[in-house]
DNA sequence: GCAAATGATTTCAG
DNA sequence: CTGAAATCATTTGC
């Protein structure tokens, strides 16, 4: 108000407060004079300004009529442009104050999360992403908890629908409000100077207000998703023991690779497929198994013997097959080591083991070049022969057979080391530090100056 | 109901 | 990132 008065004074030196008349009803006609002299112009401007100032006191019809009259006034364009100019000048300082603000990191985080969860983004793809996220988060077997998954998906879809509905509502309201305000401003711009920039600024203000509401919506949607996730996908709460068969397969691999129970990525995938579990579950299982085995070897003795026996008979079959087919040099299925189904087999026949040994050393000698018949070195050498090629057909068989061989040997010899103190099975694979022997750099080969405390049943028969 | 077993997670180191 | 170790949370067997 104060500013307005000042502007008006600046315009023509007209003092409004000193103007006669109450309520504008008794205003002199706008076109009273020719206005060729300076005083006449001042009078004109004074009249116009006064009419503008008092227009709000009039009834709607009167004001409408007056507005039309003012718009047609000959002085109007000049007066208007001057007002615009002044306003432009005063408005600059205001506009300069508020710069373009950077994108809100909080909002970006929320957006990213909603996108990742499949709540935001395209409808179809979003659903698929959500399903994938659900599957990944649960880490469970496919199909095992598919009911929970579908339940989760349904809830997520619900959240997505609510989110989109609300978002649309907000957007619509925002647009409506913006249009309304813009219309209002455009309308007003006929009677008061409003630059397009000002309209733009107003629109921005409105959008900011609405986007803060949107952010709240996004925030609460994120919270809802998080709650949903924690309720449905907390794997720890929904833990299921693996099937007997899966445990069997994993144990067979573990005990047949006891020297180096670290399945390669390929081996993990293979095991995961066989066990109908995920690769990370295989990793978990081996992690747990290693640590628990190492912690209490004695406790796992029986299990170790059992699986050693299973693998032994399996290897025996494999070797027998290999011997039979040695001419063709075609190995048996690389997975045979895991699929021991003969539950009734009892490994108490020394002949079996000896046959196995003989077969191992003589039968397939055409395929594998064997070094000095020292078991430890033999094992290591063969292991290094097979190397990392677990996936390779020959490599897998050799590895499995050699490991089996080691069990058989330790069992046959009745060896008892100081650490395990077990006559049937010894933790030959653990080194003095309590870690597994690194198969790729066996100390028995590359470091002959091994400490006296190290345990190596391999070299003891 | 309890203890053991077990799958998963967390924390830390390399 | 992987693996060791500790720990958590649940399942299982008694």
Question: Can you characterise this structure?
Answer:
By secondary structure, the protein is mainly alpha-helical. Among the domains are: 57-90; 105-120 and 147-237; 244-323, Arc Repressor Mutant, subunit A. The protein has 16 helices and no strands. It is rod-shaped. It binds a DNA duplex (14 and 14 nucleotides) through α11.
Specify Rg, calculated over alpha carbons.
Answer: 44 Å
How would the global form be characterised? rod-shaped
Fraction of residues in helix: 55-70%
Proportion of strand residues: under 5%
The residue ranges in which pLDDT falls below 50 over 5 or more consecutive positions are 10-35, 124-145, 329-425, 438-461
Tell me how many strands there are.
Answer: 0
Question: What assembly state would you assign to the polypeptide chains in this entry?
Answer: single chain
What structural class do you assign from the helix and strand content?
mainly alpha
Spell the H/E element sequence. Answer: HHHHHHHHHHHHHHHH
Q: Biggest sheet: strands, sense, closure?
A: none
* Rounded mean pLDDT score: 63
Please tally the helical runs, counting DSSP H or I stretches of 4 or more residues.
16
Distance between the termini: 106 Å
């Amino acid at each position: 108000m104060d500013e307005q008065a000042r502007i008006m004074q600046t315009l023509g030196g007209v003092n409004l407060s000193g103007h006669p008349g109450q309520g504008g009803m008794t205003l002199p006609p706008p076109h009273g004079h020719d206005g060729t002299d300076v005083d006449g112009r001042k009078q004109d401007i004074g009249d116009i300004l006064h009419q503008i100032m008092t227009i709000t006191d009039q009834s709607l019809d009167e004001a409408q009529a007056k507005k039309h009259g003012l718009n047609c006034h000959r002085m109007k364009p000049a007066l208007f442009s001057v007002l615009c100019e002044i306003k432009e000048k005063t408005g600059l300082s205001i506009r300069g104050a508020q710069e373009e603000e950077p994108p809100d990191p909080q909002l970006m985080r929320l957006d990213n999360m909603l996108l990742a969860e499949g709540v935001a983004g395209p409808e179809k793809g979003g659903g698929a992403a959500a399903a994938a996220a659900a599957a990944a988060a649960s880490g469970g077997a496919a199909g095992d908890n598919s009911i929970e998954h579908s339940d989760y998906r349904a809830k997520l879809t619900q959240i997505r629908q609510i989110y989109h509905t609300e978002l649309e509502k907000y957007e619509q309201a925002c647009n409506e409000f913006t249009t309304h305000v813009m219309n209002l401003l455009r309308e007003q711009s006929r009677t008061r100077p409003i630059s397009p920039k000002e309209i733009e600024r107003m629109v921005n203000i409105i959008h900011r207000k609405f986007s803060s509401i949107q952010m709240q919506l996004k925030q609460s949607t994120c919270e809802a998703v998080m709650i949903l996730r924690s309720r449905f996908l907390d794997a720890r709460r929904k833990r299921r023991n693996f099937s007997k068969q899966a445990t069997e397969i994993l144990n067979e691999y573990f005990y047949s690779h006891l020297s180096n129970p670290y399945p390669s990525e390929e081996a993990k995938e293979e095991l995961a497929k066989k066990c109908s579990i995920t690769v990370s579950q295989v990793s978990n299982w081996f992690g747990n198994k290693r640590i628990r085995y190492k912690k209490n070897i004695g406790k796992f003795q029986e299990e170790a013997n059992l699986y050693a026996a299973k693998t032994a008979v399996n290897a025996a079959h494999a070797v027998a097959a290999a011997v039979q087919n040695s001419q063709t040099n075609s190995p048996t299925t690389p997975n045979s080591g895991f699929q021991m189904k003969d539950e009734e087999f009892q490994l108490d026949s020394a002949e079996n083991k000896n046959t196995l040994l003989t077969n191992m050393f003589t039968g397939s000698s055409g395929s594998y070049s064997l070094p000095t018949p020292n078991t430890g070195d033999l094992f290591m050498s063969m292991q290094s022969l097979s190397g990392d090629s677990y996936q390779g057909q020959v490599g897998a068989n050799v590895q499995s057979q050699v490991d089996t061989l080691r069990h058989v040997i330790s069992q046959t010899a009745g060896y008892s080391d100081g650490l395990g103190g077990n006559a049937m099975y010894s933790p030959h694979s653990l080194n003095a530090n309590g870690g597994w022997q690194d198969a790729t750099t066996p100390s028995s080969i590359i470091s002959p100056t091994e400490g006296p405390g190290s345990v190596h049943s391999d070299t003891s028969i």
